[in-house]
Automatic annotation (TrEMBL):
Residues 1-25 form the signal peptide. It comes from the Bacteria. It holds the Pfam family Bmp. Coiled coil: none annotated. Residues 31-288 form the ABC transporter substrate-binding protein PnrA-like domain. Keywords: Signal, Sugar transport, Transport. The keyword Flavoprotein does not apply. This is Simple sugar transport system substrate-binding protein/basic membrane protein A. GO terms for cellular component: plasma membrane. The lineage of its organism: Bacteria, Pseudomonadati, Pseudomonadota, Alphaproteobacteria, Hyphomicrobiales. It comes from Bradyrhizobium lablabi. CDD domains: PBP1_BMP-like.
Length: 359
């Protein structure tokens, strides 16, 4: 049901729908504004957003793109977006969670401007939101790690232990155990989405504890991947598929957001005056996430297993189907029960095989 609902939302959003919204004159090219919370050269979250917007720009001749990097999640973001509107922007992408309220404030005062926010929940006639459904997509990443580890110890650096991040860890460990029952995942939490110093310390700590495959959920995977590469262990990336350039030897694969199709469809709907807000959450095989290319260390048989696992997820397999126990032995998802997208933020526990405390 979750996947059918998601696909229904996707089809509606990507088709532009038929409800009339703010329109752009046909003889005037669309101007789009975009704000990023960090640098677009981070090989991670902001890079993926930038790549999606560039794809949108390429797909729509004449489209003008106004951008601002390192925009804080404060009232300063509202001032910067207002400036973009004054320069003619009729579509704004606010790409960080903390930008939501400030973008929503502007949506109220500028009903002729469309806003798309990444990761939030607010909606208005000219305000929608979008994000990738990441949790199940981590399952094939676990398959890759479980097959490639020699120590049976995997490392996962988590920025902030919100439910969605814990869900990523859980799917990763379940994927690993599906091919390697002895695999365990050690978790270190840094306490922030972007702290290079703590990320390096966390990666080194995991490697010192025996992890020979390291992955992460932070804004930029660069520091962790580079640390793993320097220590001679494998890495699995997240956020942008371009991160593979950082580890020519140890890169296995990764997950990347693919926003271009959605951003293009949204811009076209604004031009046509057919924009309709929606809460869009899509995963593998649905247009917003992709498995990154494999590194040279991954043999053909492992590649085939990972690809088959990704195809299984794309086909509707839900790894969060009971019975599932947590790492204290308590049953958290009962036999015959499944957790869908509406429950992904509710994780406050780790599955069996994860070494670490969720709270």
């Amino acid at each position: 049901m979750k996947r059918l609902m998601a696909l229904g939302i996707a089809c509606a959003a990507l088709a532009g729908l038929f409800a009339m919204g703010p329109a752009v004159a046909e003889d005037k090219p669309l101007t789009v504004g975009a704000i990023y919370v960090g640098s677009v050269n981070d090989y991670g979250y902001n890079r993926a957003m930038k790549d999606g917007l560039e794809e949108m720009k390429k797909n729509i001749p004449g489209l003008k793109l106004i951008e601002a990097e390192n925009v804080p999640e404060t009232a300063e973001s509202e001032r910067i977006m207002e400036g973009m509107i004054q320069q003619g922007a009729k579509l704004i992408f606010a790409t960080s969670f903390g930008h939501q309220q400030f973008a929503f404030n502007l949506a109220k005062t500028h009903p002729d401007v469309v806003f798309e926010h990444a990761g939030g929940w607010m909606q208005a006639p000219n305000f929608g939101n979008f994000f990738g459904a990441t949790q199940s997509a981590w399952y094939p990443m676990g398959v890759a790690a479980g097959k490639m580890t020699k120590s049976n110890t995997l490392g996962f650096v988590v920025g902030v232990p919100i439910g969605y991040a814990l869900g990523n860890v859980n799917a990763f460990e379940m994927g690993a155990r599906s091919v390697n029952p002895n695999a365990v995942t050690r978790v270190v939490v840094t306490g922030g989405w972007s702290d290079k110093a703590k990320e390096a310390v966390a990666a080194n700590a995991l490697i010192d504890q025996g992890a020979d495959v390291v992955t992460m959920h932070v804004d930029s995977p660069a520091t962790i991947i580079q640390t793993a590469e320097s220590r001679g262990v494998y890495s699995i990336g997240f956020q942008s598929t371009e991160a593979r350039a950082l580890a020519p030897k140890g890169w296995l694969t990764g997950l990347g957001f693919t926003w271009g199709q959605f951003m293009t469809a949204t811009a076209k709907s604004v031009i046509a005056g057919t924009f309709k807000p929606a809460m869009v959450r899509l995963g593998l095989g649905e247009g917003m996430m992709a498995v990154a290319p494999f590194g040279p260390a991954v043999p053909p048989d492992v590649r085939a297993l990972v690809e088959a696992s990704a195809a299984k997820i794309s086909g509707g397999f839900n790894p969060f189907t009971g019975p599932i126990t947590d790492n204290s032995g308590a049953v958290r998802i009962k036999d015959g029960e499944s957790w869908g997208g509406d429950k992904m933020g509710s994780f406050d526990w780790y599955v069996e095989g994860v070494i670490g405390k969720a709270k």
